[in-house]
Amino acid sequence: ILSLFHRQAVGLTKSNKKRKFYLKKCLISSSPLSHLYLVRTIGVIKSILILKIFIKGVLLFRKFIDIFLNLNNMKSPAYFLYARKSTDDQEHQLLSIPAQIDELREFAQREELNIVDVIIESKTAKVPGRGLFNQMLDKVEKGEAQGILSWHPDRLARNAVDAGRIVYLLDRNILTDLKFPTFWFQNTPQGLFMLS
Q1: What is the pLDDT averaged over residues 67-84?
Q2: How many C-beta atoms surround the C-beta of residue 172 within 10 A?
Q3: pTM (2 d.p.)
């Protein structure tokens, strides 16, 4: 800094007023007090730079924590695995309950779905009032799972009351997804229409 003042004073500037100003700075800077002032100024500047670096580090760390927390909140939704076999006409049943569960577990593993509970029911779906099915939907409303995995949509509902409850939960985004190995579903108006 002193040599810069000296070069400026020697004549690199064009105006006389600037030369006089820099000469005065050079004379002041040659005293011991000005050296002390210069050392203190450099110390303050270093402290400010260190503080700036520290603040930038804290802000970057905070961004990293925010991203990490957002990634944790974006965990895959939990699913109930629901298998049902009707008691009406067992001769015309396509898949037994063990066969459904095996296929659904393979599908869940392939799709990397988080299965929190397996619900097995042997009851007709033509009339409302299936106990385990209603308990499963109650658990969905409590937030224990956000999706249902079943072999086919007709395993979930074959009557308007149960189907309406599922569609209502989907509309309110309490139930966010339905997965079927034999049927494609997306939670959109078109998907809800295809489901019904």
Answers
A1: 75
A2: 9
A3: 0.59
